[in-house]
């Protein structure tokens, strides 16, 4: 299966275009890095791939078809700031199981403690919250994962821990990953191919 | 070594405040509705009594016990407050949720209505609406409800818009969740506490407006034992030194407002998970 | 890649003689929180923390989210919420600080460098906000000095007449630093100055703070980004579960890490993507249930029985300080 963006152009309101005529392809099972200086539209492209934004021009195809906006989107995006990506009035257990119920084993591997399940998001740190946000996106229906600076706000150990779970899972389930990051070392470590957005 | 410590025990204090004020307010309401109207009888042998042991709040120019009248008046005020704040919350909830959900023209019309209502001075609008509705209890309630839905509508509308555009709702949509799920699970936990607190915070406004409009003669009729009626009647006797006629009912009315407002704030503090676990 | 700043640092980094400008000892912060109903629980978010700041030196505090590193800045600046208790001792030069004297030097001798342009007054020109930091000289002289300082941060003289909304994020940081350098402030605290910046911007932040330190300010930089810390700081304090496990020379964090003493610092280094990208199992203990013994006990590869029941004190090892019984 393939995630394909063809001739994508995008601009916010009437400003000058952030993206113009971008082509981008990821196969399942592949880990692709996406990098560019700030303001070159990496995150915008990530949001377009995951269906958060509609491109002004061009199409995004998953397995040759446009994704159904009403159903579970096969392309899932994990944001940089987990604090904003969880409902502050939900307990952690509800947050984790919103899309699917992850098996005990994955919860353990992700380093999520049982004691955290009955806590409110405000009681956990960013690193602890991000483990929940990543795991809830790894549903069996997820064919592609867009990691937009997913571990930038985390310490090195947590970063390595989360990526180990994600890459192992991706290899097993043939999931494709797009890693958006400034960290060239991280990209080199994770990706088989790195795409640079220029101009 | 302890360098310093800041305040402590806010939740206990919040709970204590809520319990205490609820008990006082219910007591006033129960007392008020159990006092038969004819217990406020004319007693010409005891007119113009200053506050004392037999008449704690004194008596008026026809010998009626001011304590009984005040309690009766307060309980009426609390009823007006409850009905007014509940109805303005209903209006606010409907407009605040419908606006951003329907979007476009509907939202613009609602915002315009809010601005319009806010641009006319409160009191004048209440008087106009109250007269248009034929005055009395109904007039006051409709008048206050028609003017006090605005700020809560704005709050709820802003909250709904904020949640609609929040990352967690966008993520929820990508998980294929229905609009119904998002409304029930993501919106309700945010909006309901706002509504509860909003309702309580409208309450003091409602009773103060009821009293002031009645005082001006546009509200409840003179035969009702309302605080506004008591205050306006007492005006004539204040100059002859009967200060207690206005003092005690006025102070009690303000106390009720402050209590309800503190009740709302304490409830808000306990209900929000962000503040609830702290302090 | 970053030879220029490495060089200046080496020139200046003689062994840390002299007395620290600012020091905290056995510092702790706890919050009382409610659990069920009205049962309260003390959460110890910072325990037994020691740090020392020296003139002209940058100390980076590196730690994961939830290690309490931001609270350290808030505690020093006195902006903790009302349910907090602060323990320990603070020294400014040789003076032990009391609650009153901390309040006196905050904002005067200690400045927080915020991340965003929002901390400038939006209605006042940048120039007059910078000039206000200078005391006791005529107006023209103030302007001259302000523009001189701005030039050091390669800000155009015309920025003097800008309003804050015309500044980019990087320019705003330079303006804030200019204000700090022109004022009497001696200690700068920067909370996460490098959140996910691209390479050129990161190099710029590094330059900006290095300049401040070279002016003689003591800088405390709080970050989760160990790569940035290695490039900017003279010394690095490794923060874990609210305590410093190791304070070491920044150079110790490059290479194979053999100069590091604490197993957690080594694990941090090994987890870097340019090293082994090796995760460490387990999680940092929550402030509510810290272990009785060593804070790192659960995840430690070299633990022994006594680590479980007694907590190691900080002790000097190879020019740094380490909180471990077995580090050598």
Polypeptide structure, described:
The complex is a heterotrimer of chains A (199), B (279) and C (328). Chain A is of the alpha/beta class. Chain A has one domain (2-196): P-loop containing nucleotide triphosphate hydrolases (Rossmann fold, 3-Layer(aba) Sandwich), CATH 3.40.50. Chain A is 28% helix and 24% strand. Chain A has 6 helices and 8 strands. A 5-stranded parallel beta sheet of chain A has the order 5-6-7-3-8, sandwiched between helices. In chain A, strand 1 (2-10) and strand 2 form a beta hairpin. Chain B has 279 residues and is mostly helical. Chain B has one domain (10-39, 56-276): MetI-like (MetI-like fold), CATH 1.10.3720. Helix content of chain B is 74%, strand content 1%. Chain B has helices at residues 10-34, 66-102, 104-119, 122-132, 136-148, 150-164, 167-174, 179-216, 227-238, 244-271, 273-276; one strand at 2-5. The model of chain B has no long low-confidence stretch (mean pLDDT 85). Chain C has a single domain, classed as P-loop containing nucleotide triphosphate hydrolases (Rossmann fold, 3-Layer(aba) Sandwich). Chain C has 10 helices and 12 strands. Chain C has an 8-stranded mixed beta sheet, sandwiched between helices. A 4-stranded antiparallel beta sheet of chain C has the order 2-1-4-5, with helices on one face. In chain C, helix 7 links the parallel strand 7 and strand 8 (218-223). In chain C, helix 5 packs across helix 6 (169-182) and helix 6 (169-182) packs parallel to helix 7 (199-214). The radius of gyration of chain C is 21 Å and the shape is globular. The model of chain C is unreliable at 1-16 (pLDDT under 50). Classes of the chains: A alpha/beta (199), B mainly alpha (279), C alpha/beta (328). Chains in contact: A-B, A-C, B-C. Strand 1 of chain B pairs antiparallel with strand 4 (84-92) of chain C.
């Amino acid at each position: 299966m393939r995630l394909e963006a063809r001739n994508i152009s995008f601009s916010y309101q009437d400003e000058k275009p952030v993206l113009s005529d971008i082509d981008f392809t990821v196969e399942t099972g592949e880990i692709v890095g996406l990098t560019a200086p700030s303001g070159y539209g990496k995150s915008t492209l990530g949001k377009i791939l995951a269906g958060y934004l509609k491109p002004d021009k061009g199409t995004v195809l998953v397995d040759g078809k446009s994704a159904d906006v009403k159903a579970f989107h096969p392309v899932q995006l994990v944001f940089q700031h987990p604090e904003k990506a969880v409902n502050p009035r939900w307990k952690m257990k509800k947050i984790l199981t919103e899309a699917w119920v992850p098996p005990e084993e994955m919860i353990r591997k992700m380093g999520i403690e049982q004691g955290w399940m009955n806590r409110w998001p405000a009681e956990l740190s960013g690193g602890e919250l991000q483990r929940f946000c990543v795991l809830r996106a790894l549903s069996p229906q997820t064919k592609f994962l867009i990691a937009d600076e997913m571990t930038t706000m985390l310490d090195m150990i947590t970063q390595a821990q989360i990526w180990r779970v994600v890459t192992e899972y991706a290899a097993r389930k043939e999931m494709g990953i797009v890693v958006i990051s400034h960290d060239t070392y991280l990209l080199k470590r994770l990706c088989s191919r790195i795409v640079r957005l220029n101009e | 070594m302890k360098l310093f410590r800041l305040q402590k025990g806010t939740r206990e204090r919040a709970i204590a405040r809520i319990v205490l004020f609820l008990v006082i307010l219910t007591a006033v309401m129960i007392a008020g509705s159990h006092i038969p109207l004819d217990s406020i009888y004319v007693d010409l042998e005891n007119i113009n009594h200053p506050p004392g042991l037999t008449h704690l709040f004194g008596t008026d120019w026809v010998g009626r016990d001011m304590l009984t009248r005040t309690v009766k008046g307060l309980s009426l005020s609390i009823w007006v407050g409850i009905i007014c704040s509940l109805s303005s919350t209903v209006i606010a909830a409907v407009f605040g949720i419908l606006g951003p959900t329907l979007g476009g023209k509907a939202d613009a019309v609602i915002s315009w209505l809010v601005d319009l209502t806010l641009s006319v001075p409160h009191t004048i609008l209440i008087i106009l609406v109250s007269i248009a509705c034929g005055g009395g209890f109904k007039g006051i309630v409709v008048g206050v409800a028609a003017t006090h839905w605005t700020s809560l509508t704005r709050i709820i509308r802003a909250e709904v818009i904020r949640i609609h555009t929040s990352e967690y709702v966008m993520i929820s949509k990508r998980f294929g969740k229905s609009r119904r799920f998002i409304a029930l699970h993501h919106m309700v936990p945010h909006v309901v506490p706002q509504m509860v607190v909003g309702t309580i915070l409208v309450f003091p406004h409602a009773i103060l407006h009821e009293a002031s409009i009645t005082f001006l003669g546009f509200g409840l009729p003179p035969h009702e034992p309302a605080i506004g009626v008591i205050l306006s009647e007492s005006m004539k006797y204040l100059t002859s030194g009967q200060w207690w006629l206005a003092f005690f009912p006025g102070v009690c009315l303000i106390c009720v407002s402050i209590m309800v407002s503190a009740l709302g704030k304490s409830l808000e503090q306990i209900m929000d998970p962000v503040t609830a676990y702290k302090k | 890649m970053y030879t220029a700043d490495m060089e200046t640092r080496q020139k200046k980094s003689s062994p840390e003689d002299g007395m620290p400008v600012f020091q905290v000892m056995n510092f702790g912060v706890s919050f009382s929180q409610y659990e069920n109903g009205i049962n309260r629980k003390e959460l110890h978010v910072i325990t037994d923390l020691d740090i020392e700041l020296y003139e002209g030196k940058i100390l980076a505090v590196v730690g994961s989210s939830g290690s309490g590193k931001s609270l350290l800045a808030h505690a020093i600046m006195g902006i903790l919420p009302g349910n907090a208790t602060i323990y320990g001792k603070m020294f400014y030069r040789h003076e032990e600080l009391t609650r009153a004297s901390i309040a006196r030097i905050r904002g005067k001798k200690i400045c927080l460098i915020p991340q965003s342009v929002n901390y400038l007054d939006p209605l006042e020109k940048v120039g007059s906000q910078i000039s206000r930091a200078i005391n006791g000289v005529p107006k023209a002289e103030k302007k001259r000095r302000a523009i001189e300082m701005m030039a050091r941060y390669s800000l155009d003289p015309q920025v003097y007449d800008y309003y804050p909304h015309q500044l980019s994020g990087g320019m705003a940081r330079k303006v804030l630093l200019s204000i700090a350098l022109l004022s009497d402030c001696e200690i700068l605290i920067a909370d996460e100055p490098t959140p996910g910046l691209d390479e050129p911007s990161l190099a710029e932040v590094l330059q900006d703070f290095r300049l401040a330190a070279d002016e003689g300010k003591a800088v405390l930089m709080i970050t989760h980004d160990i790569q940035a810390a290695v490039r900017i700081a003279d010394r690095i304090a490794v923060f874990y579960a609210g305590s410093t496990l190791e304070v070491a020379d920044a150079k110790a964090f490059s290479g194979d890490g053999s100069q590091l003493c604490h197993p957690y610092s080594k694990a941090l280094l090994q987890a870097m993507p340019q090293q082994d990208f090796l995760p460490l199992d387990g999680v940092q203990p929550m402030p509510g249930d810290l272990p009785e013994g060593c804070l790192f006990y659960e995840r430690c590869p070299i633990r022994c029985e006594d680590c479980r029941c007694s907590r190691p004190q900080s002790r000097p090892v190879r020019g740094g300080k380490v909180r471990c019984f077995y580090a050598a």
